[in-house]
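Side project, low priority. Logging it here so it doesn't get lost.
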Amino acid sequence: MALLGGCASDVVACGVGCSPSPSWQLATEQSVGAGARGIVVTDCNGDDHADIVVANSASATISVLKGHGDGSFAAQETFSAGPKPWMLALGDFDGDGVKDLVVANFVNGASVMMGYGNCAFSPATNILPPAPSGMYSTAALAVAARDLDGDGHDDIIAQATGPMGVASFFAVLYGKGAAIFEPAVMIPVKSPTSEIVVADFNSDNIPDIAGAQSSSREVPAPMPL
């Protein structure tokens, strides 16, 4: 994984490689697991330093790099995840004030890994099993977390793909606290989604969902919930 140190345009001097104009220091390398894919940043141990979490698809793990606050990081600590972890999102799914992870797994839906507040995470628990009707498979390439219904519990949006890729859905799992979720509500979309974002696009104070669909070269219209 490559790390680059940046400088803002109004900074006169901030170390090697910086100048009055925008610039970046040379990248440094940090070891993570095999097949690094998704990445998120959080303060997972409460020391006010940014830490990095990486999904390693080939080694079925996540890597946690604890930040020192000076642009350097400790060696990775790894935790078992679901098979082929692809993308990550952060949320508080049990209401303890500690950030948890939701993982989009390329071959096994979505899973949650509860945070302990010390940059350690629980083993993965699957939350998007196969549909009994075979309506969708368990492949997931994208995931997001947000309180969609205003009940104070973070909810999860995951991409789910139908058999042989002929249909795709946003799977919305409403959180009930204590890391418990209602059965997925399936929202059809045109094609598999590689990234999901949640924001209020129409200024009605209600979260909306948008996704990037690489195969169709389109972004679906934001969908209110």
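Brief comment: The CA atoms of residues 5 and 25 lie 5 Å apart.
Revisit when time allows.
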